[in-house]
């Protein structure tokens, strides 16, 4: 009996060591990948469109008729609050948040926007309801209140038109948004290096082949005035960005 117990404890110990080593390796790789990212500095990019830098990620704010629309919600509530103070924008004036996906670095400051309706794609709900893990047994954080969008659905918010475009790959329900037909927000659906669209860091993608198809889908849009990524800045030359696709 004692030998059995010892073997069991030894087995548990080995599993724990393997888990710790795997987690440690993941964190090291994650740090290496995030160091490659080049988000935009906090500030107004073009009239009424603002970038908020939160460590290695951006969220964006679009001024509407009676408030602001946010695309994503950052990596740290404290940091987002500080950066919005720099912009002199009151978080309570954010009336809607459109999530490109539900990874932690895109949802951490949602509680900063208590007046906002939170939107995400129907296909992304699986990432927050316990159905689909993000990494092995790790799930994305739960979101207590939200409205679901279909591919191609348009929402009118604060005098702005926001159309959701399903762009899976990074996660199964990743969604990009076109605001007023002019501003394209892609989240982690692509990187932007030397002005050219490319795959996002494959270490973080759940399906890079599907993401490649999503980038081609975006390339087929009528050229927007601006393309905004969550981790690799923006461009005002969509034709050049998507020119090879």
Structural account:
By secondary structure, the protein is α/β, with parallel strands linked by helices. The chain has a single domain, classed as Metallo-beta-lactamase, Chain A, CATH 3.60.15. It contains 4 helices and 15 strands. The protein has a 7-stranded mixed β-sheet, covered by helices on one side. Strands 8-9-10-11-14-15 form a 6-stranded mixed β-sheet, with no helix packed on it. The chain has a two-stranded antiparallel sheet with strand order 12-13. Strand 3 and strand 4 (68-71) form a beta hairpin. The longest helix has 33 residues, at 2-34. The protein starts with a helix and ends with a helix.
């Amino acid at each position: 009996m004692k030998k059995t117990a010892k073997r069991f404890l030894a087995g548990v110990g080995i599993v724990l060591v393997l888990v710790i080593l795997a987690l440690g390796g993941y964190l090291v790789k994650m740090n290496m990948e995030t160091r490659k990212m080049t988000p935009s500095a906090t500030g107004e990019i073009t009239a009424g469109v603002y970038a908020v830098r939160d460590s290695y990620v951006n969220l964006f704010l679009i001024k509407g008729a009676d408030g602001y629309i946010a695309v994503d919600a950052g990596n740290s509530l404290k940091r987002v609050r500080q950066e919005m103070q720099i912009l002199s924008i009151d978080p309570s004036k954010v009336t809607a948040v459109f999530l490109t996906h539900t990874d932690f670095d895109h949802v951490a400051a949602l509680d900063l926007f208590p007046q906002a309706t939170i939107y995400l794609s129907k296909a992304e709900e699986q990432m927050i309801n316990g159905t689909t893990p993000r990494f092995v047994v790790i799930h994305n954080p739960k979101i207590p209140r939200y409205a679901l969008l279909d591919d191609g659905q348009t929402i009118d918010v604060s005098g702005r038109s926001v159309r959701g475009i399903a762009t899976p790959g990074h996660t199964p329900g990743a969604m990009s948004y076109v605001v007023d037909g002019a501003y394209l927000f892609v989240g982690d659906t692509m990187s932007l290096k030397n002005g050219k669209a490319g795959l996002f860091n494959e270490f973080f993608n759940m399906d890079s082949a599907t993401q490649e198809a999503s980038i081609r889908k975006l390339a087929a849009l009528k050229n927007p005035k601006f393309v905004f990524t969550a981790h690799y800045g923006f461009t005002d030359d969509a034709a050049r960005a998507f020119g090879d696709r």
